[in-house]
Design a protein that fits this description.
Number of strands: 11
Helix content: 25-40%
Strand content: 25-35%
Structural class: alpha+beta
Number of helices: 5
Largest sheet: 5 strands, antiparallel
Order of helices and strands: HEEHEEHEEHEEHEEE
Strand order of the largest sheet: 3-7-6-5-9
């Protein structure tokens, strides 16, 4: 059974969509939440990211998805006047679960975690990067559907619990998205929302999800970079 998502102000959107598999309801929910934002915040002004900080995460990455890369670049160029920080074409990702800070989790533990998770993560599936929306700190594609993403998140969370890692937010607060621009200063949201609204007729992009990556994540300048430690294949059944 899929973990139920709950309303919580720590998540964005705070209210989850009413249907996790209906694209129109997911994208409308994302867009309604973004339209309600009055001021955008600096994405990089986040607690816990002191200089040199590194952390382990589970991610879905898309280094070879040319259609997604081309779509992201087109949208980034169209929004260049906003002066936001672009996600590099080889940095497009969906964050799944936080595992823990590298200061708190040793290499042996992450290897044990990968072993525990391997073979427990379910089958391959497809996502779609849908019309654009945003949050208080970023511009991003909505992704649909959510059910298998939530189930994957829950499986990774269980493996983390069994391995004894600190972990991140529970699956009930998971709100998947795929960012393309990070906001880098305080500003009024209305002009950003207006600019993004002009791009919401772009076609969606299909994304085959065949594996999940365990990464060691860091910041370089105003971008996220990572080293892949383990890539776990999803079942082909």
């Amino acid at each position: 059974m899929t973990t139920p998502l709950i309303e919580d102000s720590r998540a964005f959107p705070a209210v989850p969509p009413s249907d996790l598999d209906e694209p129109q309801k997911i994208t409308a929910n994302d867009w309604d939440a973004f339209q309600a934002v009055e001021r955008m915040t600096d994405h990089w002004d986040r607690p816990g990211w002191a200089p040199g900080h590194r952390a382990y995460y589970w991610m879905l990455t898309f280094p070879d998805q040319r259609e997604l890369i081309d779509q992201a670049r087109w949208c980034q160029r169209a929004l260049a006047d906003l002066g936001m920080d672009e996600v590099p074409h080889d940095g497009l990702h969906i964050t799944m679960n936080k595992i823990g800070s590298c200061a708190d989790v040793n290499h042996r533990t992450v290897d044990v975690l990968a072993h525990l998770a391997d073979g427990t993560l379910g089958s391959r599936f497809e996502l779609r990067a849908e019309p654009m929306a945003g949050s208080k700190g970023a511009i991003r594609f909505s992704v649909t559907p959510w059910t298998q993403l939530v189930e994957l998140h829950a499986a990774l969370h269980r493996a983390g619990r069994d391995a004894g890692v600190p972990g991140g937010r529970p699956s009930s607060l998971f709100r998947p998205h795929l960012g393309i621009l990070y906001n880098n200063r305080e500003r009024r949201a209305a002009p950003v929302i207006d600019a993004v609204s002009d791009l919401r007729n772009r076609p969606s992009v299909t994304l085959p999800i065949k594996q999940v990556d365990m990464v060691e994540l860091r910041r370089e300048e105003r971008a996220y970079r990572w080293n892949v430690l383990h890539s776990l294949a999803l079942s082909d059944r």
